[in-house]
């Protein structure tokens, strides 16, 4: 058992290193992921911010959690794209001829997604600081924020793995991310849900993004989080487990 674990982790480190080399050789992927969320943040803060009643003096503080989720939703599309290319080029089949743990091929892509999205999140937070974002939170709330964002990234990454293994074309491999990117717009990420029509408000208040955004916002402002953090964690863990299960099933059938 111990030898199997060592074999698994050594194989996974090799796959992670391989995927990270692709990231650092084409840093434009991270730049592309950052550009749209930063542009949206600039637009909403400096153009629409004065007209939006968010109940806070600093709209960038209110906006940032939703922008981070949009950036992550955009970033996972590249995971699906890279995995699709590995399948189409027969690279995964080649790996299967080697004495390696097969699941580490997918975990290499998943951990690479975690690292690359973490870089994007840090860049966006730095831009937000320049724009006036300030947080009174201590170390523990920031660690909680990092933990929620990591769980959210992993959950969506395994959804991306399903798309990458199932897609018939390059466009299809990344198209799944568009509805996910759109979800923050129908949530409390940009405006309070109280201002929405009844039907839209009911949907917005009961979808995962709102709970995650509210939890992040409370943590960053050092306010009581309440049940939002447990709802957010339940959504993230639930999506992660279901997506991982179906990703492995698709993987076995496809390869």
Automatic annotation (TrEMBL):
Membrane topology: Multi-pass membrane protein
Keywords: Cell membrane, Membrane, Transmembrane, Transmembrane helix, Transport
Transmembrane parts of this sequence: 30-56, 62-84, 105-133, 139-163, 175-193, 229-247
Short name of one Pfam family: ABC2_membrane
One cellular component term from this protein's GO annotations in UniProt: ATP-binding cassette (ABC) transporter complex
InterPro entries hit by this protein: ABC2_TM, ABC2_TM_bact-type, ABC_2_transport, Nod_factor_ABC_transporter
Keyword ATP-binding set for record: no
Molecular-function annotations in GO: ABC-type transporter activity
Subcellular location, record wording: Cell membrane; Membrane
UniProt name for this protein: Transport permease protein
Organism expressing this protein natively: Cohnella herbarum
